[in-house]
Amino acid sequence: MNEYEGNVEDRELALALRRLDSAVVVPDADPAREAALMAAFDAAQVRRAAPSAGRQYWYMAALATAAAALIAVGLHPALTGRHGPSPDAPAMHKPYASTLRGVQPGPEPPTEFVMVPGAATLPAMESGSLVRMNVPVSMLPSLGLTPPQANRSASVQADLIVAQDGLPRAVRLVN
Questions:
Q1: Given 44, 74, 99, 172, which residue has the most CB atoms within 10 angstroms?
Q2: Which residues contact 141 (CB under 8 A, 6 or more apart)?
Q3: Whether the Cβ atoms of residue 128 and residue 169 lie closer than 8 Å to each other
Q4: Contacts of 107 (CB under 8 A, 6+ apart)
Q5: Sign, Cα dihedral of 88, 89, 90, 92
Q6: CB neighbours of 172 closer than 8 A, spacing ≥ 6?
């Protein structure tokens, strides 16, 4: 039993294709036609020759310059945004009254939400949810919070505001 016995239409199609194959006469390769075809291919290659070495050098130099400019522009926010301006730079805001009296502001109370670092650069929040979870104390600095001194446990309870994209936008510690 071969593969065509199950379906009559497939067997008829296979037989018709075999008859067509045996009826077609394929001529031998003509050396003159082959030479003319190869000459046409060679002529097309010459017309589409690669750019000269000098021209290619300038293409690569322009590409390298553009890449260096993109890297420099891309690194600028990372170098200045997270760590703030250099200490020698003039202040961009007026100091608070408490710092004028010599009192240093303390950490924010745990009852207020603190924006997660980098959340300001994310797209606007369309919807979100409040999630209470145990957060490892070692993760608190990356969320913009100072670990509590009184709590020596491995994790603390925190409320996170999570946006529709699943990324946290703000966090607060729960008493």
A1: 172
A2: 147
A3: yes
A4: 146
A5: negative
A6: 110, 111, 112, 113, 114, 158, 159
List CB contacts of 155: < 8 A, sequence separation 6 or more: 134, 135, 136, 137
pLDDT digits (tens, 9 = 90+) for 63-89: 999 998 888 877 765 555 445 555 566
- SS (HEC) of the chain: CCCCCCCHHHHHHHHHHHHHHHHCCCCCCCHHHHHHHHHHHHHHHHHCCCCCHHHHHHHHHHHHHHHHHHHHHHHHHHHHCCCCCCCCCCCCCCCCHHHHCCCCCCCCCCCCCEECCCHHHCCCCCCEEEEEEEEEHHHCHHHCCCCCCCCCCCEEEEEEEEECCCCEEEEEECC
| Residue 170, Cβ density class (10 Å: 0-12 exposed, 13-18 middle, ≥19 buried) | buried
